[in-house]
Write a structure and sequence with these properties.
Layout (H helix, E strand, L loop, with lengths): L1 H51 L3 H12 L5 H99 L7 H4 L7 E2 L1 H12 L9 E6 L12 H9 L3 E4 L8 H19 L2 E7 L1 H12 L1 H4 L3 E7 L7 H7 L6 H15 L5 H4 L3 H10 L8 E4 L14 E7 L3 E3 L10 E3 L2 E6 L1 H16 L18 E3 L24 H17 L1
Parallel strand pairs: 1-11, 2-3, 2-4, 4-5, 5-6, 6-11
Antiparallel strand pairs: 7-10, 8-9
Helix pairs in contact: 1-3, 5-15, 6-15, 7-8
Length: 508
């Protein structure tokens, strides 16, 4: 039906155009015929009037009167005056008639010209109609084409943007993991795992070599302000041995440079207060903050720091931070807004605390700030277990104090009721979460990690690298397991082994 309607419309439009052109042709022929007849009438009338001006009788009378020699002089004079008067009157009448004929001719020519120009203009306009229609159709077609091209370009740009975002999201941190090993100018690392295991075995056998001539400073990592038991067992362990051990009071959710300045002030306070050099052990972001303090304030801390052990620290960066905050990937702005709400609004931190652990920021910082060469460095990294048995592992992250409850011992002691303060441990499946993230990093990038930091990113150039012989997740060094294995070393003994190894490196 639509095809038939279109054909009917086309046929009707063609018939109308044919009718218009036929009318124009008939009008043109009619005007041409009228003009020719009008010009012929004017020419014939002018010819008739010019021929009527020649009078044969009048000419004969004037010639006979003028040439008769038989008249007298008086008659001759009178006849001469009559002849002159008649000839003057004839000339006047002829001029008047010529002027009238000329005016008629001019008016006729004006009418002819006016009708001629009107007809030509009308014909020209009629002939211009198809051209104008063609110009309008061409302009409409070009405008439609430009509109379609614009929308096609916009759609192509959007598709390319979406494809680029998807590819960038899928690619992730594949080219960034382990960049420290391939970066030019980086010092090589040394494997000290055998020496570490030897010292650890000696500590378990009761051989403790740490002197009290140093102050031992434990530097917590990211979100440690919300973990009440962060490094608490390790500090208690060192205090029982009579060693001066402190946990750095820093805002763990602050930026690396801010924490570096706070650590510099804290180290100087400990040094001038005790007169002893300080040994540093930083876990996770705490190790990065401590390394930043030594790199930025190397002149101030050169004689005050005896060594630094970075435990599971993302010195080169971490894919977890980069994959969350990478610009140009799918839902990058929405993800950043969520993280800003969680870190800035909920826990009152700084988004730069997480941003400083991305590969881009770590590259920039390491390029601008070099670690001093005269301070012993140890890089400790581990691999988390991804087996199904890890799901049941619980970590003791805090404890809750309940109100006192009276306890009735016996009938005779009923009057001496004892008010006891009960502490209930708070446990969480931290190891299970670390196992899931470690499995994610292994499947996506093929990298071994403790759940948050890959092993290659935790190796500081120029340091002694320590790899334990057991699988440990990222939280194991700071949160003790709910079920301890007496035959296995705990985190406190490993920290003592790391400090002892720093002492050996400084002595050598």
């Amino acid at each position: 039906m639509e095809t038939r309607n279109l054909s009917a419309i086309c046929c009707s439009s063609c018939a109308e155009m044919d009718d218009i052109f036929s009318r124009l042709l008939s009008l043109t022929s009619c005007l041409t015929r009228r003009i020719i007849e009008f010009i012929e009438g004017i020419l014939s009338r002018d010819f008739i009037r010019s021929s009527s001006d020649i009078n044969p009788s009048g000419s004969k009378l004037s010639s006979s009167a003028c040439n008769d020699n038989k008249f007298s002089s008086v008659d001759y004079a009178s006849s001469s005056r009559d002849c002159n008067s008649r000839s003057g009157t004839g000339f006047l009448e002829r001029d008047v008639s010529d002027m009238e004929d000329q005016s008629l001719i001019n008016s006729g020519l004006g009418i002819v010209n006016r009708y001629y120009h009107r007809g030509v203009r009308f014909i020209f306009k009629g002939l211009m109609l198809p051209i104008l229609f063609f110009e309008f159709a061409w302009g409409s077609a070009m405008a439609s084409w430009r509109f379609c091209c614009y929308h096609m370009r916009c759609m192509q740009a959007r598709i390319q943007s979406v494809v680029s975002r998807v590819l960038k999201t899928l690619h992730g941190s594949s080219d960034d993991i382990g960049w420290l090993q391939s970066a030019p100018g980086m010092a090589p690392v040394e494997d000290g795992s055998a020496r570490f295991l030897e010292l650890l075995q000696g500590i378990r056998n009761g051989v403790h070599k740490l002197p009290d001539s140093f102050v031992y400073l434990l530097i917590p990592g990211l979100f440690s302000n919300h973990g009440p038991l962060y490094f608490v067992s390790t500090k208690r362990f060192f205090s029982k041995m009579g060693l001066a051990c402190h946990i750095a009071k820093i805002h763990s959710e602050a930026s690396v440079e801010h924490n570096a300045w706070e650590l510099k002030e804290y180290i100087e306070e400990l040094y001038w207060g005790s007169g002893k050099r300080v040994m540093l052990l930083g876990h996770s972001k705490g190790g990065v903050d401590a390394a930043a303090a030594l790199a930025i304030y190397s002149q101030e801390l050169r004689d005050k720091v005896a060594g630094l052990a970075l435990v599971q620290s993302p010195y080169g960066g971490t894919p977890m931070a980069s994959d969350i905050l990478r610009e140009g990937q799918v839902a990058d702005k929405e993800t950043r807004r969520i993280m800003e709400f969680l870190i800035c609004k909920l826990i009152k931190g700084d988004i730069r605390a997480l941003e400083d652990l991305t590969y881009e920021k770590r590259r920039e910082f390491i390029r601008n700030h070099k670690l001093p060469e005269n301070i012993p460095l140890i890089s400790f990294h581990s691999e988390a277990s991804v087996g199904p048995g890890v799901i049941a592992t619980m970590s003791h992250i805090a404890h809750a104090e309940l109100p006192w409850l009276p306890r009735i011992l016996s009938n005779e002691d009923r009057e001496d009721a004892i008010i006891a303060v009960r502490k209930v441990p708070v446990i969480a499946p931290v190891s299970a979460a670390m196992a899931l993230t470690a499995l994610h990093l292994q499947l996506r990038y093929g990298e071994k990690s403790d759940g948050l930091v890959t092993c290659r990113d935790a190796e500081v150039p120029g340091s002694v690298v320590v790899k334990p012989d057991k699988k440990l997740d990222h939280s194991w060094m700071v949160y003790s397991s709910w079920k301890k294995q007496p035959t296995e070393p705990d985190s406190c003994e490993m920290c003592e082994a790391l400090f002892t190894m720093l002492l050996d490196l400084g002595t050598n």
